[in-house]
Design a protein that fits this description.
mainly alpha; 22 helices
Length: 486
């Protein structure tokens, strides 16, 4: 028995460092008596399956295998093994109730993110971001100014848009301005990644982890802004250090390209702001799930999208450039050729959502939920929050999120629900959000820019500045402990 106990503790410790927090309990709504399966072959097999799946997730860039595929399969196998085990003990309700609880958690977050992604994609289709990029490139700013402007915009755009969209937008500006100046492109990309991740940490809309904390009701909407100064320090410290490598006077040649926002683009922005206000008011005053406000806002966008589409469909697809009108049947032409320009369609914006990320989210929630039901939650909670204490445990959460995706990390912390103060909950929200900046592979923003600036902004190019980012990480934690009196 002692060997089994030590083996279970060792397994939890390995999970902590290999794929930490691979735990997400079915939730306290699940009925029935739960079995401790941490020392049996079922538990060990499920851990191995999850770890193998996550190895494929980490190696996505080399395997060219979308990250959602291995975790979805792993989740299915884990839950089938759990279901067989519980059924063999005569219990056919506990596993089913636990999985339904996990599915409800996923559905709320998935629909929330789908609405937000549709808004972002619609603004992109209306050329809102392209117009901003064109304006920045055409202003004739120096490289030093572009460095600070792109970082500042990334910091303030990411609290509303996701850090991936923000990084791609600012990365396009950096690439267009920097050109063949690889030294500038590298530090500017790192600056954008750090700023986008830091900006998302003080807003429920800025990152999936902050959204999860808000939806759980642990931190109120206005309380996230207590993290503004620590988040600002997290970006400013490495940005200030890296800025000395950027020439002050060098000014690249400006672009003459002028891009205008398409009709309806500014109204879509207004609808998005209205949707955010509706979501926050519904959650704070009526205690409704945030997803209700977001989906209502999506409905408003669909209504307005109908108006845009009717206007664009009224325009003729074929125009004659000669003195006589061409005798071409548009409907017949569409049977054989795709038009270069199509009328607005809201469902195209929905189709362009990050479905791989959403499905990855499903796999993580279900797979980690199964491992939690197996009994690893208590072991990891004991090792982390009782053994190390909440402050060091939360600092470690941020360091681990640079290696492991912060979604399962934050899910596990929320589900463990360790005994700690409100300030500590804000601390783990901060560290999980900004810790991914330490490595280029630690966040979606970093991975996206590695693809956008392929061969220039690389893992090792980012690693050379990890010491400066780590200094900002440490000082942001210190500022939070000091200002928010943890």
């Amino acid at each position: 028995m002692r060997f089994k106990h030590h083996f279970a503790q060792s397994t939890a410790f390995c999970l902590l460092f290999l794929f930490p927090f691979a735990v997400f309990a079915g939730g306290d709504a699940a009925p029935g008596q739960r079995l401790d399966l941490t020392t049996g072959w079922v538990g060990i097999t499920c851990v191995v399956i999850f770890c193998l799946a996550y190895v494929m997730v980490v190696g996505e860039e080399f395997l060219h295998l979308r990250k959602s595929k291995p975790v979805i399969v792993a989740a299915g196998i884990i839950w089938f093994l759990i279901g067989i085990t519980y059924a063999s003990h005569g219990d056919t309700t506990t596993a089913a109730a636990a999985i339904r609880h996990n599915l409800l958690e996923f559905a709320e977050l998935m629909l929330f993110l789908l609405a937000a992604m549709t808004y972002i994609n619609t603004m992109d289709e209306r050329q809102v971001f392209s117009a901003l990029r064109s304006w920045l490139i055409g202003r004739g700013f120096s490289l030093r100014k572009i460095f600070w402007i792109t970082g500042l915009l990334a910091f303030f755009i990411s609290p509303v848009a996701d850090n991936l969209t923000t990084a791609l937008l600012m990365g396009a500006v950096v690439m267009a301005v920097g050109g063949s100046n690889s030294a500038f492109v590298i530090v500017a990309c790192i600056n954008v990644v750090v700023a986008a991740n830091a900006g998302g940490a003080f807003s429920p809309f800025g990152d999936i982890t902050t959204l999860m904390v808000w939806q759980k009701g642990i931190v109120e909407f206005h309380e996230f802004f207590n993290l503004f100064i620590p988040s600002l320090i997290n970006w400013l410290v490495p940005a200030f250090i890296m800025s000395f490598t950027v020439p002050r006077a060098e000014t690249p040649e400006g672009s003459k390209e002028k891009i205008a926002v398409l009709p309806g683009g500014y109204i879509v922005i207004g609808l998005f702001v209205l949707t955010i206000c509706l979501t926050v008011a519904g959650h704070n005053f009526l205690h409704l799930p945030p997803v209700i406000g977001m989906m209502t806002g999506l409905g408003l966008l669909k209504f307005y999208g109908y108006r845009i589409r009717r206007k664009e469909l009224a325009k003729p697809m074929v125009n004659s450039s000669g003195p006589e009108q061409l005798d071409i049947n548009e409907h017949l032409l569409l049977q054989y050729y795709k038009p270069r320009y199509r009328a607005f369609d809201i469902f195209i914006s929905m189709k362009r959502a990050e479905w791989d990320t959403l499905m990855f989210f499903y796999g993580v929630v279900l797979a980690v939920g199964g491992l939690g039901l197996l009994g690893y939650l208590a072991l990891v909670s004991q090792t982390m929050y009782i053994g190390l204490g909440p402050t060091w445990a939360n600092v470690l959460v941020g360091l681990l999120s640079a290696i492991v995706d912060n979604i399962p990390v934050m899910f596990a912390v929320l589900t463990m629900n360790p005994e700690m103060s409100h300030g500590q909950w804000l601390l783990v929200t901060l560290t999980a959000g900004v810790g991914g900046s330490l490595l280029s592979i630690g966040s979606a923003a970093g991975v996206a820019l590695m693809g956008q600036a392929r061969g220039i902004y690389t893992f090792f190019a980012h690693l050379k500045w990890t010491w400066a980012i780590a200094l900002g990480y440490a000082l942001s934690i210190w500022a939070h402990l000091l200002l928010n009196k943890v």
